Amino acid sequence: MRKFTIALLSVFLIASISAPAHSAQMTAKKFSSCADMLKKYPNGVAKDKKARNKAVKGGFAKPKVSKTVYKKNRDRLDKNNNGIICGQKKAEPVAKAEPFAFAKNID
Predict the structure, then answer these.
(1) Inter-residue contact 47 to 67 (CB < 8 Å)
(2) 73, HSE (Cβ side, Cα atoms, 13 Å)
């Protein structure tokens, strides 16, 4: 039993030393402009759900919520400090055109 416990502890010790500490976490990228950010996040980035919901109510497209990306880029890209970086207005739906009068069959 003692050999089994020592072997088990040594396996855990080796596994904890060899595995990187932050392998599961992604590092947030620093973007130089909104054009660069919009390539990856087409609707912008919100710092939290509250800021995202406020932006959507204000007529903006639904931005991606990412606190780490927001913190990394807020100083350069969030000019009005509203919690949204590079927010995009919703596209207005295009009205369907009516067919011309002469195209209808008039009896």
Answers:
(1) yes
(2) 28
DSSP code for 32: S
pTM of the model: 0.61
- 35 located within any domain: yes
pLDDT in tens, the chain (107 residues): 788 788 767 766 676 676 555 544 567 889 999 999 999 999 999 999 999 999 999 999 999 999 999 999 999 998 889 999 999 888 777 777 666 656 566 65
Task: Give a yes or no: residue 16 inside a domain.
Answer: no
**13 within a domain of the structure (yes/no):** no
Tokens 């392998």: give the residue.
23
Q: Tokens representing 96?
A: 């369907």
Residues 6+ apart with CB under 8 A from 80: none
Query: β-strands 64-65, 84-85: how paired?
Result: unpaired
Q: How many domains does the chain have?
A: 1
* Residue 99 falls inside a structural domain: no
